[in-house]
Amino acid sequence: MYTRNLTMLTDFYEITMANGYLNQGMKDTIVYFDMFFRKIPDQGGFAIMAGLQPLIDYLSNLHFSEDDIEYLRNKDMFCEEFLDYLRNFNFECDLWSIPEGTPIFPNEPILTVKGPIIQAQLIETMILLTINHQSLIATKTNRIVRAAKGRPVIEFGSRRAQGADAAAVGARAAYIGGAVGTACTISEQLYGIPAGGTMAHSWVQIFDTEYDAFKAYAETYPSKCTLLVDTYNVLKSGIPNAIKVFDEVLKPLGHRPQGIRIDSGDIAYLSKKARTMLDEAGYDDCKIVVSNSLDEDIIRDLILQDAKVDTFGVGERLITAKSEPVFGGVYKLVAVEKDNKVIPKIKVSANVGKITIPGAKKIYRLYNRKNDKAIADLITLNNESIDDTKPYILFNPVHTWKRKKVENFYAKELLVQIFDKGSLVYESPKIDDIKDYCQNEVNKLWDEILRFENPHKYFVDLSYDLWIMKQSLLNKHSDIQLQDNKTD
Fold first, then answer.
1. Whole-angstrom Cα distance, residue 333 to residue 473?
2. What domains lie within the chain, and their CATH numbers?
């Protein structure tokens, strides 16, 4: 858990607006903000929610230090009343979130904040950067893990990550997405992600011969011996020297080798040859680990070529989500409380994809009772409930004539309360439980949604009452009102 104070990690406009809200007498105005995203990375069928626990850690430690106050005072922009407000800051918001590891889809609220406008605005940046980054890495990892078809994937990306935090929390997100471990030591210390590693090429180079390097390593770690065999020549020296050390060092000690690792070259060809050589030497239980700028596309190709790979180490293209490195989640005002009533708010845009879904809302996921497969997500007003004892009509919120009657289903609310007026009311699962939950929920998606090429678009629909509200607000903000064009 991070203990450093990240309260000032905001966009500066959050502070200028906060000061303005106070000056306008609006500091106690209760508002609702939704976080949602508009597009799934890599044109995939779904994304994975991640980052909630680090966000909880941040929100539990919100405070402004005297150094923060003095910095803001020196900007000569903020009134003393506002600086006193920050000095005595006490987080008082409600927060709901979809649990980590849950498959998520565009335009649905994955996190909702309700509270005083100043507070709800100040936490925007940290909410976005935390959930965006970790959801991105968890999503990318899940693609890679599914491409590996049951073969373990280890996160190898620390040295290529975009900074220290991205390396540490990226390994956490990768584990949620399905990786079995990480090369990043601090991630095990902080989050309990299994960390491991063996040697680099420098270990082999520092010794007079490759054989000497392998022998020294086997003598040091006889029960955990994995040798890197591509420093010079995989087939002519690496594998032969590894087998010689297995015979002369490990076997007399009563140990079996854990594996060999190939980090360059034609991995499909080399892995097949290596497998034959190891099997013929009596080491059919010796695993073959491969690395070297892998991603889901390369892994799928390797499997199609019948590469003899037992474990994939995936680095830069996982930890940076290189193919599409932006998740694109946004944080938008959707409602304001006035006179004990919730007044919905909408953002209208010429780009229809940027029009928001107004109001305080809930999300239901509908599952088929026969096989537990997810049918659709339904966004409703927060005072609506779904009666899953009778059929329900879903309709496309844009092409409203497209409808589906859902029967024999059960409905599950996705948003879970995390904070109640600033008090933490949620107990985060252990990281292994989040990982298992993620796998179980992904397994509830149809194969058509899981495919890599042209996945089926999962239904995210609005309830009728919510749809009517949205249309009413759109009409209200239109510059041309509909008229009765009837003639006598």
1. 14
2. 12-137+325-476 (3.20.140.10), 147-319 (3.20.20.70)
Contacts by 342-347, CB closer than 8 A, 24 or more apart: 342/32, 342/382, 344/469, 344/473, 346/470, 346/473, 346/474, 346/477
Using the Cα atoms of residue 39, residue 44, residue 45 and residue 49 in order, give the sign of their dihedral.
Answer: negative
DSSP annotation string for 315-348: -HHHHTTTTS-----EEEEEEEEETTEEEE----
Q: CB of 289 within 8 A of CB of 270?
A: no
pLDDT per residue over 7-23, tens digit each? 999 999 999 999 999 99
Task: State pTM to two decimals.
Answer: 0.95
Which residue stretches of the chain have pLDDT < 50?
1-2, 488
Q: Are the beta carbons of 148 and 299 closer than 8 angstroms?
A: yes
The answer to whether 199 and 227 have CB atoms below 8 angstroms apart is yes
The token pair at 427 is 């107990």
pLDDT for res 1 = 43
Rounded to the nearest integer, the mean pLDDT of the chain is: 95
Q: Which residues pair with 331 in a beta bridge?
A: 35
Rounded to the nearest 10°, the torsion over CA 263, 269, 272, 277 is -80
